[in-house]
Design goal:
By secondary structure, the protein is α+β, with helices and mostly antiparallel strands. The chain has two domains: 170 residues, Ribosomal Protein S5, domain 2, CATH 3.30.230.10; 90 residues, Alpha-Beta Plaits. It contains ten helices and twelve strands. It is globular and about 55 Å long. The strands form three sheets. Strands 1-4-7-6-5 form a five-stranded mixed beta sheet, with helices on both faces. The protein has a four-stranded antiparallel beta sheet with strand order 2-3-8-9. It has a three-stranded antiparallel beta sheet with strand order 10-12-11, covered by helices on one side. The two termini are 36 Å apart.
Length: 277
């Protein structure tokens, strides 16, 4: 089974308050962005994988690991190389999480990382959510979206969004989701990834000052798109721009080039812009 986990952008991101559990309450609108995606294949037992041969041809050396019980093999491929332990990848953690409650068959995971790391686009979260759905299907589990989202939320704050993978208002840690009828007819949205800058989400949170926005996110989104430049904020921009001044220059350039709205996605470093068609 092969899928293509896509990334997301955040339309607005307000960090409201620090929680007793160490996380933060926030509000944001998650929007899927299908033009950037990974390639994820999961097979059971000794099935032949079409992906592995292709990965070796494109990348040469692959990063691979097998779980101590021999039930999971994971293979990672990335142009810049993989600098994390494969068995700690969120797709592997998805397998271990489901296996706590269900008798899963042995599986092989092949993940080609094409989405950027440290860009605020949620590529790893998407991989985990898509993996959960695939593993449930391959194991014959009858888990609905709500059940899958509950597992996904245990893997990461924005993982649950990718189970639904349509515009959703996120609150709580980002795991409380509500469908939102986003309408961008007449506009084009695209993503820009600055070269050479990767932002750690943990570092971005260290500098954040939680606060309630002047206008609730839902009210701002209901305004004309042309008004978003003044009212639709990403609270991470202030602290991330202070550490990476070049990112502020990227945003300014997007407006000079005709963006109606431009903002950093998540904790950065990727940006998106909205232009009229």
């Amino acid at each position: 089974m092969i899928t293509h986990p896509n990334v997301k952008i955040n339309l607005g991101l307000n960090v409201l308050r620090k929680r007793p559990d160490g996380f933060h309450d926030l509000e944001t609108l998650f929007v899927p962005y299908p033009d950037i995606h990974d390639v994820l294949e999961i097979v059971t037992g000794d099935d032949y994988s079409r992906t592995l041969a292709g990965l070796r041809e494109r990348y040469g050396t692959l990063t691979q690991a097998i779980s101590p019980d021999g039930k999971l093999m994971i293979t990672l491929a990335r142009k810049e190389g993989v600098d994390w332990e494969p068995l700690k990848d969120l797709t592997a953690r998805a397998y271990f999480l489901l296996s706590e409650d269900f008798a899963l068959p042995p599986m092989k995971i092949f993940l080609e990382k094409l989405s950027p790391v440290g860009a605020g686009l949620g590529g790893g979260s998407a991989d985990a959510a898509f993996a959960l759905r695939m593993m449930a299907q391959l194991s014959g589990l009858s888990l609905d979206d709500g059940q899958l989202a509950a597992y996904a939320a245990r893997l990461g704050s924005d993982c649950a969004f990718f189970i639904y993978n349509r515009p959703m208002l996120g609150s709580g840690r980002g795991e409380i989701l509500e469908p939102y009828p986003l309408e961008l007819a007449g506009y084009k949205l695209d993503v820009i990834i600055p070269e050479g800058i990767s932002v750690s989400t943990a570092d971005a949170y260290r500098g954040i000052v939680p606060r309630m926005p002047e206008k609730p996110l839902r009210d701002v989104l209901a305004q004309p798109v042309e008004s978003w430049k003044e009212d639709l904020k990403n609270d991470f921009e202030e602290t991330v721009f202070a550490k990476y001044p070049r990112l502020r220059e990227v945003k300014d350039k997007l407006y000079r080039e005709g963006a109606v709205y431009a903002a950093m996605s998540g904790s950065g470093s990727a940006f998106f812009r909205i232009r009229k068609n």
